[in-house]
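agent> call fold_tool(seq_1)
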Amino acid sequence: MQPILDDHLHLDPVNGQGAEAVTDFVNVGGTHLLVLNKPSWELVGEVDGETGFREAFELTIDVTERASERLPGRAWPVLGVHPALVSRLTNRGFEPAAACDLMRTGLDVAGEYVASGAALAIKSGRPHYDVSPEVWEASNAVMRHAFAVGARCDCAVQLHTESGDAFPEIERWASEAGLPAERVVKHYAEGPTDGATPSVIGRKEALEAAAESGEPFLMETDFIDDPDRPGMVLGPKTVPRRVTWLREAGYDDAMRRAHVETPAAVYGIDTEATLG
């Protein structure tokens, strides 16, 4: 058996299948997962302080541990603050600067879990939709804080951002914080990406472009685990099936790069040693 890692999916123990969703992944050859906490408001409602973030993170750690029990490899939690929280907060009357402060608190709490060994990495980002200049500035401040937390905790940072294939500004900010660019992961990448390691969504054209590039990359589904939206964004069977397709097309080296070499370089995890 060779490692197959889904770099970004969600398991919802409150509203969704939770760890049971892993069965489909395993049945088609999946071995390892990075489980991202769902947005806090979908797990615990509106958050006004670190207690709410801790509650959401604890739920995610627990469901990740239960997912690990079902895997031939293992799962790791990635914790953080969804960038759309800034809009929920400002819609509730928060000034952008106050929303920024609360989101930075959430990232600090996520960093505590990484420092203790309970989580592998953190997540952050900025809105992928139009916002006011004040909200955009606050969101960038939150993301830069995430880079500082990642550098302090010696961990990777997954980013939810606007689409694109080059992020020189983000690369510069991460470097200024002491976080190497390869440890910044562009979630939902659509192919090779400059300035961050791409976590490529499991669509054939995007994955083929990443495999052809010869550059480090990861593979993901961004599975939502929402009973009202089954299979959103992609179902948990997608990454293993795409791996089979790519290997049949002759991309064995690229698959080792995506599922062994890049996870080791970005997250410090050994997907071979943790098999079986």
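agent> call fold_tool(seq_2)
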Amino acid sequence: MIDETGENRGIVSIKEALEIADEAGLDLIEISPQANPPVCKVLDFGKYKYEIQKRKNEAKKNQKVVNIKELKLRPAIDTHDYEVKLKQAKKFLSQGDKVKFTMRFKGRELSANSMGKDLLDKIVEDLDLIGKVDSAPKLEGKQMSMTMSPA
């Protein structure tokens, strides 16, 4: 048992520990139930819960949320349109977001899906300094997709 001042009291019976907590006007809280014998501490339970919540909020504040931005392409894309998509991808990657490139195929384009693969490879080559490939281009039905994350 650990008392309200943080001093280790050693092994104490439950009845005695409850009496010590009652005298101090505080609560007896089981800190480590798996330990043998279990570790208990005398402190204010409301304050204890508040500190735990505060630690959780601090941890949540420090974590980074990663968004996935999707850019849709076609295999027969014009150079200017390609450059616009590339510029958007650079902007997203520099902001720390992941980018998912989706290549949509229609009709006969599906039989010549190597054009789409070549275009996605060109994107990887152009964005080599800014991002890295998370998932390689793969064909799923009528679309091919690839995911990149910031380098």
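agent> summarizing second result for user.
Residues 64 and 147 are 19 Å apart (CA to CA). The two ends are 50 Å apart (CA to CA).
agent> awaiting next instruction.
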